[in-house]
Structure to design on (336 residues):
């Protein structure tokens, strides 16, 4: 099946006072209609930048982009601001971690839902209001016709998140990009919002890109998974495959530092030693080599000298052999 969104060899660089940041360095992925791609990685791994680029929300003056982004047959890297604006209104919508990035405190929730709909769809005020109330109802806001006239500060944190999702759904987007959408919420509300997103996906058939640092959330939300490190994809596969038998040392680190589902309470977490590399001056070869515990098991290649590539389909960008990738996890990582 042809992917709804196809990204090929994407490179994103931006200039800062300190030099050029290589935020994304040769990234390829596909998202199919109606499916969820999870993108996981630590902060600074390039996962948010990737999606701002897809939406054309990067700063065009300071950012340089190479590669291909094809959304529903349309090439985006060369698209004009006007074309992108149209796309953002009609095909793609974004849900942020902080609803106040999307919702202004100065206007009522209803007005903020209606106006883009009038603009992008040529709807009348009355039609837009009816649609907004319908969407507020869908995301579980009680008494939506009354709440239509409220300001964002009159909503609780969870309700604001729901209102932002309603806003994202107004134009029936084919692709929803959710960037850490529940990180700021308490666990119960988080679970409710995630369930809501899954239900809405069923109903609307949207593709979702779900960005998070939380593998537990991904396990529950995504079909496919891309693990990012230092602006590159280091592992890819179905969520099932990657979580059951991860093949990249960085993914092993992420899994070991995650509280085990149903595990003993008080079990100590093993964080990945070291910190994410600077993207001003990324490490040579494999970007993970300064933090990797398995470099001495690699033969016939140099972790600091040669950059491992990520093959097609289920793959991990690492110089370990296929057999090592499978057995090290089972023998050394899993039985903590
Ligand atoms: Fe570790 Fe080398 Fe594999 Fe990179 S290529 S993850 S440094 S073993
Ligand atoms: Mg981020």
């Amino acid at each position: 099946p042809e992917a709804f969104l196809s990204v090929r060899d994407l490179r994103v660089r931006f200039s800062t006072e300190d030099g050029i940041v290589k935020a994304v360095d040769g990234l390829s992925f596909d998202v199919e209609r109606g499916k969820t791609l999870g993108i996981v990685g630590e902060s600074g791994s390039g996962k948010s930048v990737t999606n701002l680029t897809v939406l054309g929300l990067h700063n065009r003056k300071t950012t340089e982009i190479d590669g291909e982004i094809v959304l529903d047959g349309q090439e985006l890297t060369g698209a004009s601001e006007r074309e992108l604006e149209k796309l953002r209104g009609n095909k793609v919508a974004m849900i942020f971690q902080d609803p106040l990035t999307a919702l202004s405190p100065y206007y009522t929730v209803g007005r903020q839902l209606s106006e883009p709909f009038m603009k992008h769809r040529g709807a009348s005020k009355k039609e837009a209001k009816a649609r907004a109330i319908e969407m507020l109802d869908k995301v579980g806001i009680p008494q939506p016709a009354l709440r239509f006239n409220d300001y964002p500060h009159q909503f609780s944190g969870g309700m604001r998140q729901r209102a932002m999702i309603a806003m994202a759904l107004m134009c029936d987007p084919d692709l929803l990009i959710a960037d850490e959408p529940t990180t700021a919420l308490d666990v119960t509300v988080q679970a409710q919002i995630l369930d809501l997103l899954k239900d809405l996906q069923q109903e609307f058939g949207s593709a979702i890109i779900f960005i998070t640092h939380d593998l537990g959330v991904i396990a529950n939300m995504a079909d496919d998974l891309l693990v990012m490190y230092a602006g590159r994809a280091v592992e890819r596969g179905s969520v099932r495959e990657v979580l059951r038998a991860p093949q990249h040392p960085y993914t092993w680190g992420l899994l070991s530092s995650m509280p085990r589902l149903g595990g003993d309470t008080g079990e100590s977490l093993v964080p990945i030693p070291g910190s994410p590399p600077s993207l001003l001056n990324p490490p040579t070869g494999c970007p993970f080599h300064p933090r990797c515990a398995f470099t001495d098991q690699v033969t016939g290649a140099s972790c600091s000298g040669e950059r491992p590539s990520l093959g097609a389909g289920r793959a991990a960008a690492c110089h370990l052999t296929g057999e090592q990738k499978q057995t090290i996890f089972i023998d050394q990582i899993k039985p903590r």
